[in-house]
Amino acid sequence: MEAYQALERRRSTRWFLDRPVAIEDLKKIAELGLRSPSWVNSQPYHAHIVTGSTLAKIKEEFLAASQAGKASQPELAATPRKDWSQDAQEHMAHWQAGVKTTLGDMEPLQEAAIHLYNAPAVVYLTLPKGYSPWSLYDLGGFGMGMIIAATERGIASLPAYRFVVYPDIIRKYVTIPEDEVLILGIGLGYRDPSAVVNRITAPRKPLTELLDYKE
Ligand SMILES: Cc1cc2nc3c(=O)[nH]c(=O)nc-3n(C[C@H](O)[C@H](O)[C@H](O)COP(=O)(O)O)c2cc1C
Predict the structure, then answer these.
(1) Which is nearest to 197 in space by CA: 107, 114, 119, 93?
(2) 99 burial class (0-12, 13-18, 19+ CB within 10 angstroms)?
(3) How distant, in Å, are the alpha carbons of 40, 179, 201 from that of 130?
(4) Is residue 142 in some structural domain?
(5) How far, in Å, is the centroid of ligand 1 from the Cα of 214?
(6) Along the chain (215 residues), what's the average pLDDT of each consecutive run of 10 residues?
(7) What's the total number of domains in the chain?
């Protein structure tokens, strides 16, 4: 598969099959992600890959915490909706309306989320405490590099805030140094084609809305 095909075909997967991803594939995906550019080659990020019984324990505790109504405590705070640009707020509202139309209501999505989308592998991405804002740019590139490498291998993905809403649970099972900030998780696995949540699509704004071209 060419890179442009991987970019065209990639979509977020919100329910994965009960099929593990080989550790060799996970390592290769991380290695290819590392080919991403970063500010003065700072490579400020760290990836913690979690699978198997450790991820199973995290999922179990996340589920119990979600069902108990535990508040999200992300280490990188989520920006309240009202503080996004008008344009971004409209796109978010449009996406959510589309999800409701596709699924009937938001429940299947919430149900998938509390089960961490049945992901057989999660890559937790961290940055050092006190990181430069530029490192968030670099981290995004690293994540996208991994996502494209995964797509090329037939491995589906989901970058999700949801994976990191209870850092205390993750830190109980994964040795993440205290001087690292947990930013995001990327779920990796094989897409379940029959899952209703995998029918969700995300339209893009026309190129003319975001692109200026001047000769
Ligand atoms: C930083 C970030 C956080 C995200 N968090 C979630 C999440 O918690 N739950 C979820 O279902 N999707 C999450 N997504 C996926 C986005 O909803 C998705 O990328 C967007 O709707 C575009 O759809 P596509 O990835 O299928 O092209 C996240 C994506 C990014 C980049």
Answers:
(1) 107
(2) buried
(3) 17, 9, 36
(4) yes
(5) 32
(6) 91 98 98 98 98 98 98 98 97 97 96 98 98 98 98 97 98 98 98 98 93 92
(7) 1
Identify whether 214 is part of a domain: no
Q: Tell me, yes or no, whether 107 lies in a domain.
A: yes
| Inside any domain, residue 206 | no
> Cα(186) to centroid of ligand 1, in Å?
10
Mutate to test the pocket of ligand 1, among 10, 115, 161 (most ligand atoms within 8 A of CB): 161
- Residue from 95, 136, 158, 166 to probe ligand 1 pocket by mutation (most atoms less than 8 Å from CB): 158
Q: How far apart are the first and last CA of the chain?
A: 33
Q: In this structure, what CATH number is given to the domain that contains residue 17?
A: 3.40.109.10
Q: How far apart are CA 48 and CA 174, in angstroms?
A: 8
pTM above 0.85, yes or no: yes
Provide residues with CB under 6 Å of ligand 1: 11-12, 14, 95, 159-162, 184, 202
Q: Look-up: residue for tokens 């205290």?
A: 178
* Residue 169, domain extent: 3-201
Distance (Å) from CA 159 to ligand 1 centroid? 6
- pLDDT of 57: 98
